[in-house]
Amino acid sequence: MLCLDQHADSGSDIAAPRASSLLEGGRGGSEVDRVHAEIFDAVMDRRLLPGAKLTESALCEIFSCSRATVRAALAQLAHDKLVVLRPNRGAFVWRPSQAEMRDVFELRRDIECLLIDKLIALPDLPARLKPLRDMVRHERQAFEHGDRISWLRLSNAFHVKLAQLAGNDLLTELMHSLCSRTTLIIAYRDTPAGSTCSYAEHEQILDLLEAADREGARQAMSHHLSDCEERMLEAQPGRVDPWSAFSVKLKEHP
Predict the structure, then answer these.
(1) pLDDT tens by residue, 146-171
(2) Of 44, 110, 137, 163, which shows the fewest CB atoms inside 10 Å?
(3) What distance in Å separates the CA atoms of residue 147 and residue 125, rounded to the nearest whole number?
(4) CA-CA-CA-CA torsion for 171, 203, 108, 76, nearest 10 degrees?
């Protein structure tokens, strides 16, 4: 049987937005949206790892909902490219191939350098960057305090919030999607203890943007992403722990 505890969360006072909340407007307030957001955030927080099988019956019990709700949420996650639906086998958290990793990082470098060009052209950029300064400060605090989930959330949110400054909703949606897939790549190939202190590179990018150093900011962003890509391609896949996402313990019948 399944024994359920409360959903895992950061347990911290540090302001760290859930990944599912980053797009303005969200998906709505339906039961499908609730289940989608819970699974999405578990994946983004690295509580639910690549390759994990998402069993419909277990999810129905965890979220106290119908199979139709679970199936609709999983279909949305498949559309987000975070879940793979396999005929006669079920749903699995996306596990990236080497080629997919390279594609994601290549597109992120292109898009984020384009974003820097758009931001540099804004006359009031230093004022717009102030909330990002606070976010990076919180990111650093989370890292130093060992608050893993808040740190992961803030590191991911930095790039989405940076895209929002450009005022282009489609660009923000694309960045949100790419950041989500990058998070899964890192979860598959890396461990939090082995990650670099991304807040320092984020600070450098903000400094260069504020100084209107277009080329410097582009180089810093490209290096930031290329360094991560290189580390991911060299690392070995991690172990899948499918139900730690929801504090679920599976017990054998006597």
Answers:
(1) 888 898 899 999 999 999 999 999 99
(2) 110
(3) 30
(4) -60
